[in-house]
Amino acid sequence: MSAPELTTTVVRSYDGKRFRPVGTEPAGIAAYRQQDTLLTGTMSPCGDLLGGSLAGFADSEGVLDFAYTMALKGGVVVAGLCRSTPAVDVDDQLHLIEHWTRLHPIQEEGVSWLVEVSAE
Q1: DSSP one-letter string for 15-76
Q2: What's the half-sphere exposure (Cβ side, CA atoms, 13 Å) at 26?
């Protein structure tokens, strides 16, 4: 998948924001909470994903550094690290550009894109 056309931006707080992967349907939702610089989040079940969580920090520009875990069908547990940079598209919709490193069960690296979804 090619990257959407994005421009970096600053995010002051992720508290209550929700994101889904770009170009994936159906897509699970990642719900973020933030208190000061502490960031936590949960991932809703979708497809092979049974659930997940993340914990880390947001810097003053809204760049996120966190560790994540995901429980998948078949008893697979995925763990890794991620750095997410906020950006906006031409419609001013918030995205996260994620540079991730999976540490378990297979080491790999990649880039993915999330887009903010409205609250229900």
Answers
A1: TT-EEEETT-SS---EEEEEETTEEEEEE--BTTEEEEEEEEEE-TT--EEEEEEEEETTTE
A2: 8
- In angstroms, the CA 96 to CA 60 distance is 15
**Cis previous bond, 26, omega within 30:** yes
pLDDT tens digits for range 51-101: 999 999 999 999 999 999 999 999 999 999 999 999 999 889 999 999 999
Residue 65 sits at φ, ψ, to 5 deg, of: -125, 120
User: What is the mean pLDDT of the segment spanning 14-39?
Assistant: 92
Mean pLDDT of 18-22: 93
Q: How far apart are CA 59 and CA 2, in angstroms?
A: 27
Token digits for 16? 């209550």
- Structural domains present in the chain: 7-117 (2.40.128.30)
For the segment 11-27, the average pLDDT, to the nearest whole number, is: 89
* Secondary structure letter of residue 2 according to DSSP: P
